[in-house]
Design brief:
The protein is an alpha+beta fold. A hairpin with a 4-residue loop joins β2 and β3. It is about 40% helix and about 30% strand.
Length: about 70
Amino acid sequence: MKKTYKIDVDCANCANKMEAAANGTAGVKNAVVNFMTLKMIVEFEEGADAKAVMKDVLANCKKVEDDCEIYL
């Protein structure tokens, strides 16, 4: 399952950090951050709870870029 989320991030480098953090989160099969459109597309692993996984994604993204936001 894929879902698209609106994000708030300040620069392309920060977007790359968020993408790496999201891809390192359990339950995420693939995540792509588009800085130009301020969107994150997340493909979840089979059987993953999207809401719970996205809370972990947000926590991991905040570790690398504390002022970023993902609108869940």
